Amino acid sequence: MKLLRFQSSGRNGWAVCHPATGAWHGCTQGAPAYPGDVDQLLREGRTALDGAAATMARQPVVDLAAVQLLAPVARPAKIICVGLNYRDHTAESGFVQPAYPTLFARFNSSVIPHGAPLLHSPLSDSLDFEGELVAVIGTGGSRITREDALSHVLGYSVFNDASVREYQFKTPQWTMGKNFDGTGAFGPCLVTADELPPGARGLQLETRLNGQTVQSANTDDMVFDIESLIVTISEAITLEAGDLIVAGTPAGIGHAREPRLYMKPGDTCEVEIERIGLLRNPVQSQHASAPRPSEPAIA
Question: Model-level pTM greater than 0.85?
Answer without folding.
Answer: yes
